[in-house]
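Please check this record.
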Amino acid sequence: MGWRESFTQTFGPGLFNGADLSTCLRILRANRFRVEPRFALRLMAALSASLSNSINGRIEKWRFARKYSKVEVPAPLFILGHFRSGTTHLHNLLTQDPRFAYPNLFQVNYPRIFLSTEAMATRMMQVLLPKTRFGLDNVRLQWKTPYEDEFALAGGHGISPYISFAFPAQRDYYDRYLTLHDLTDRERAEWIEHWRTFLQKLTWKYDRPLVLKSPCHTCRIKTILDVFPDAKFVNIHRNPFDVFRSTRHMIGIIDRYWAMQRAPLESWETRALHQYRQMYEVYFAERSLIPAGRLCETSYESLDADPVNQVRRIYESLELPDFAEFAPQLTEYVDGLAGYQKNKLPALSADDRAMVAREWAICFEQWEYATDTEERKADESE
């Protein structure tokens, strides 16, 4: 671990970079201020950041709200797929096309203030940013890196299942934000309003259609179509055994950076099994709502083997802008990935493979992955 990772773990605000003071206090009150003493520095950093966000957020709203609030957001292209299924790789490929825009790492972490602070703040904070994704994998990290819009809802407003990684004692409450099905009408309207505002700010800044990636959107198709009836979708899936191994690795990493409370690893794995099943049960139930020609499905295995032709197939299937115009930039980017080192993770035990095959049977069946119990090569990456 480098000094940047150590510094971020010890002194960073965790998930709450972008929250204002009222959001921070609301989250703390909801969790009865139960922050473990070992995370006191993280809490202090979050509260300090929230004061700055409150002031700068008011200034940004005063300066820009009349402009971005009138913006009509063109129907985005949504990348769907469970965590560790290759969504990041696909997002990075598609966003090489300059005819599209996307939220970047700074913007999703500071959704209230990025219009007025991004240029200066990224220069000042670049030295503190880890070079790769916090030990999760070897994907390079910069403030301009494409990132999940879910973080704008999580750290910025506290309305995401990601909050449960900080406060696991209340995870049942925050997990309601995964599918949005169990929210009250008021909560759902609030979620949509905060999400729409973030997308309006991005659209006003870039004046281009957005490519959005959030694993949570995989089970929000109905809500997405309510907001964007003309939206298009790409779903990427991956061998569930590899997803489970990689998710287990992910949980151990993000706990170091986000936790305000600790929960046993075993409880996180149980939750991961449940969330994956819930996510795809909803996805398979709702994907029929997507009009013909608006959904393309691919696999991580196909994308990894032949990224250029898989992206070509996505463009043709969804009738996206002319692929030939984009092909040279995409090929140059793919060539630059040569030598990328994938994570090497332990193979699953026979018991773990049997458990995954049983709990996630729906995906093995839908995508025709084998459920044999033989050990497979423990080599993976998103």
Summary: The domain at 3-336 is CATH 3.40.50.300 (Rossmann fold). The longest helix spans residues 40-68. The radius of gyration is 20 Å. The beta strands are 77-80, 211-213, 232-237, 295-299, 343-344, 379-380.
